[in-house]
Amino acid sequence: MQGMDEKNEEFIRQLTAAQSSLWAYVFSLLPDHAGAQDVLQQTNLTLWRKANDFQPGSSFFAWASKAAYFHVLTYRRGMRRDRLVFNDEVFAYLAERQTERLAEAPNERVSALRGCLDKLPPHSRRLLECRYAPGASVKHLAESDGRSTAALSQVLYRIRETLLSCIERSRTAGGTA
Amino acid sequence: MSGSAERREELQDLLRRLSDGPISPEDAGRLNELLHGDPEACELYLNHVTLDAQLRHEFGGRQPLPEDLPAFARSSEASRVAPAGAFRGVSLARFAAALLLGVGLTLLVSSVWSRPRATDERTTTDSVATLLFADDCQWRTKERPVEGQRLSAGPLQLEQGLIILRFDGGAAVVLEGPADLRVESRGCAQLIYGRLTVRAPKEAAGFTVRSPASDVVDLGTEFAIKVERGGATEVHVLEGEVSHSKPGAPMESAQLLSAGNAIRYDAAKALAPRAVPLKSPRFAELLNQAKIGPRQDLLLAYEGFNYPVGSLPLGEATGGSGWAGAWTVSPGVKLPAGDSGDMTIASAKLRLPWPLVGGRGPMLEAPPEYQSRRRQLAEEVRLDEDGVTYVSVLVRWDAPPAPPAGKTLPAVRLVLRSSTNFNGDHVMFNLPLFQQPQLDIRTGAIFTSAQIVAPNETQFWVGKIVARRHGEDEIFFRVYGEQETLDAIEPAAWSVKSRGIHSDARLDLVLLTKMDGGICWWDEVRIGKSWRAVVPTTAAAGNPK
Fold it and tell me: What domains sit in chain B, N to C, each tagged with a CATH number?
């Protein structure tokens, strides 16, 4: 790698690996895609600027989620009260709980998801691929699929429920599905 | 979960809607009420939000495309050009460079996850298909669609000729005149009469052609449908299978028809079809018949840098066509130390693996000190009027090493700007050091591809600008590497595509810019009204040099 020392490499690797969890964290507290994207971007820039504060060997997500929490709070303060999805009490509970959840064995969570995706019927998996492909939307997918948006939305919800049950089973069993 | 089954059902409904897109303030308020003081409900909410994030990450960069299809018959999603797991594969140097640029991770992430922002959803275009090819066509309507034009739902009445369309749902279609087709949505068309051949890749399965006698639903295949003026309809399945049913009939009544079979409804009101011999050309055969060749007549401006090799004073760089003057430097700009202001003409610096016209003679060289040269177009590119413009250029950039943190990130660019509002809206086709193509329209409107292109090799850049007087402008950018086949027709896959742009800019300057170090070579700058004007790929066209 040109011009970057090993410490930087390790930092960027961890920052990259944490993106999915950071998005889940920010979006769960601020369920608005545009706002959550702005907050994630601010968070990433803060983490980059404060990279030297990170203690190698400690939990990267625990450290990064503090910056994310700060940026979500700042964003909330700039919003009108009537635009806030969660009141302070619900917000505080979700922030604490989501930090705990996401700090737990992230690799295991990814493995469990992949194992469960492999167990899905091919058409369900393909539907998810189409749904989560870049630029895809349920509305457009429903149009090309010839069904109503509500019907497709319900099908997708059921697939996600199946996945959640499978992930829960595999994690309880201690395996990776 | 505390409370009744109704509460749980209501929460599930809200979670479903939240996954699909932005929820209303009323729904948001109700979500808060349902989670308040209910740890079980909170857990359910967090489970779903977290899974949604994981799925976006998991599938966000996938490109499940069959390799055996023509590129334009694959998928319409711009960012699907990204290799599987592109984001996860971003090298550390590039990742850091993205941050140094100030782009921020979100731009990288967003091009992989690519969930449209709420604002994008509101401003998105109503186009559902693209006209890829139309030669010697006679239309029965006043409006004559042109190649590259994005099409909204509506009629296409072709008196004579052959056109190729790609629906945004992914299906590619050949329509042979005389024909009357109604484009209905990104996944549906109605054939009143004429002959239509459909090539629908797997992800476009479900593409529907409605005819007077039957609705035909593609199940991942290739088929032809022919409708006679009285409504008699034939369906020929060339590959895979389709389902067909009487218009408006329930889905359960649909019949399957597999490859090698054909049916005919003798009249629109015929209740049942009869088997007929399969007799229809394959999609590929129709493409061959179409004789897809270059359209030099649609070229607006061209510069092949056909000057003597060596140093060339700016005032003498007046070659090519479609320009209003010579190459210059921007007025008042202080040239960097070491840049004399002359043009440097080099030869044999590009490797051209493509059957491309030109590019093998002299070219513009940008030494390390070079920053930018510009040239005025004779005809401006207008974003305030309906129109389609394509841009292409050959580029090779021997990129410098990554700079220390805080320094400007090296990049090479082709930029269209306005001479009367130089710092206003522009169209910048940009390749930063982290090798992910970008579109830059203005501050806050920068779009970064998930695709990482191979560095330090010859690339062929193609840009497309779909301007609209009213409505969203769409800008596309595709970078071809040496290992990629050039598409004779506009492809489905672009490296990056804009979103939510509404601009009235009138762009009359072309700038070739290189930021901070490295050596770059450019050749064959083309601006035209058709893909085939700026991507002349066969020997049939005269060499502009």
Answer: 5-59 (no CATH), 129-290 (2.60.120.1440), 304-534 (2.60.120.200)
